[in-house]
Amino acid sequence: MSLLSTDGLVKEFGGLRAVDELSMSVDDGEIVGVMGPNGAGKSTFFNCVSGVIKPDSGTVTLDGADVTGDSPESLAHQGLVRTFQDTRELETMTVRDNVRLAAPDQPGERTIPALLRSDAMQEHEEGVRERADELIEAFELDHLADEYSSTLSGGQRKLLELARALMLDPDILMLDEPFAGVNPTLTGEIAERIADLNDRGMTVVIIEHEIETLSELVDRLIVLQQGSLLVEGDPDAVLSDERVIEAYLGGDAE
């Protein structure tokens, strides 16, 4: 069953068509990689789907509902959460507080519940604390929980970004270059975390330039070129396709 799909998606910037009549789908429980040369439209596609920008035409469908142009906040409530290539943690807050802050519907953010400090509010806050600590431990950041996020390495920040995203309990997670700027050891660790999430039933879509890790991780690859779908399918078949070699590797099959 298709959980996420686009139909005829178009986005232009000053006459340049970054996404060109793009139609694709992601099935429930899949892990799908999106790749393509620089300028292929990958990030614009992600931004249109995740509500960061509004497409000029076409539709985005999430679990059977038309969500075209919905805000990122609305989409998060509907089960779609994305990360960014450049991590967006708050550097003057601890790792623990960064993760807790991502929890949705916190009653302390509203004036009257914050003043009343009801039993229900305190119970909710305790649940947030427990969930955050579980995620911090799961991503092996517990030894850094009370450190400012500014002290983390690039790979640790990627793990923190994943933990923050999971506080929203998404059905589908869209990851924008989760391995960029990460050393090989942490790349493998992040890939294992993503695979484990997928094994637990989460649908995952990944933009990534690190082809070897991506191809080993995903069920299916989608290749974009000049904003359009070039080819999709099994990773081995896609990477040996002459069209992909020509578009992505400049025609050098070696």
Fill in the keyword field for this structure:
254 residues, alpha/beta, Rossmann fold, six-stranded mixed sheet, 10 strands, 37% helix, 24% strand
Write a concise synopsis of the structure shown.
This protein has 254 residues and is α/β, with parallel strands linked by helices. The chain contains ten helices and ten strands.
Structure description:
The protein is an alpha/beta fold and 254 residues long. It has two domains: 2-88 and 153-248, 3-Layer(aba) Sandwich (Rossmann fold), CATH 3.40.50; 90-151, no CATH class. Helix content is 37%, strand content 24%. It contains ten helices and ten strands. It has helices at 42-49, 72-77, 95-101, 111-116, 119-138, 154-166, 184-199, 211-217, 235-239, 242-248, and strands spanning 2-13, 16-27, 31-35, 57-62, 65-66, 80-82, 172-176, 203-207, 220-225, 228-233. Strands 6-7-8-3-9-10 form a six-stranded mixed β-sheet, sandwiched between helices. A four-stranded antiparallel β-sheet has the order 2-1-4-5, covered by helices on one side. Helix 3 (95-101) crosses helix 5 (119-138) and helix 3 (95-101) runs parallel beside helix 6 (154-166). The longest helix is centred in the middle third of the chain and has 20 residues, at 119-138. The protein is globular, with a radius of gyration of 19 Å. It starts with a strand and ends in a 6-residue tail after the last helix. The mean pLDDT is 89.
